[in-house]
Amino acid sequence: FCRIMESVTIPPTIKCIHESAFLSNSVKNVYISDLSEWFKLRFGNSTANPLSAGCTLYLNGKPITNLVIPDEISEIKDYTFCGCNSLNNVIINGHIKNIGEWSFAYCENLKTVKIHDGLKEIPNHAFAHSEKLSTIYLPMSIENICPAAFDCCNRMLIKCGKNKMVADWATKHGFSLRISEIDAFLDLVSENQQIK
Asked: What are phi and psi of 176, to 5 degrees?
């Protein structure tokens, strides 16, 4: 194990990182040059991702704080941003059909997530332990939220349209809920900002 490496660059040619490659690591900064290739990367488990230690992710030298998922991406794999401490806000576009387990877990500064219509399920641990997550916008297309999807996101407000499944789930699991089709629509409309 390399315990003193503080920065790592993941080139776009890397397609898979195997289990525990970054176990007990001290990485603080992860550098990438192609966001689309980062989404294609497969991680064997959480500690295969160098972000898992609580890192800042840099794209072409700039930290990723506000992330708009590119339109060409249709899937967010397991562990993709697990442990990324630079993320503040995420917009998941309507092209996304699947998000993986632990994909945004342990993102310690993540505050807002907006999911556009298209996604049907939020899997277990997708946002678990992102304890500052205060607001998530869920679309009408959501059909299932797994029980542990938002573990330890105790201050989170769910905003959505009139989706009975989401309302029932939020009530059952003790989350605050605001249902308003108009508000949900207006809140999802944003400037088409790119990553900052």
From this structure: -70, 145
Tokens of 42: 């497969």
Q: What whole-number distance in Å separates Cα of residue 15 and Cα of residue 74?
A: 17
Mean pLDDT check: name the lowest of 3-12, 15-24, 42-51, 149-158. 3-12
Assess contact for 101 and 77: CB atoms under 8 A: no
Q: How far is 101 from 80, CA to CA, in rounded Å? A: 9
52-73 confidence digits (pLDDT tens): 989 999 999 999 999 999 999 9
C-beta neighbour count of 127 within 10 angstroms: 26
Tell me what the mean pLDDT of segment 174-194 comes to. 64
Under 8 Å CB-to-CB from 120, ≥6 apart: which residues?
97, 141, 142, 143, 144
Q: Do the Cβ atoms of 141 and 164 come closer than 8 Å?
A: no
Secondary structure letter of residue 45 according to DSSP? S
Question: Mean pLDDT, to the nearest integer, of 112-127?
Answer: 96
CA–CA gap between residue 77 and residue 150 (Å, rounded): 17
Residue from 129, 126, 143, 136 nearest 160 by CA: 136
Length of the chain: 196
Calculate the alpha carbon distances from 122 to 50, 119, 149 in Å: 24, 8, 6
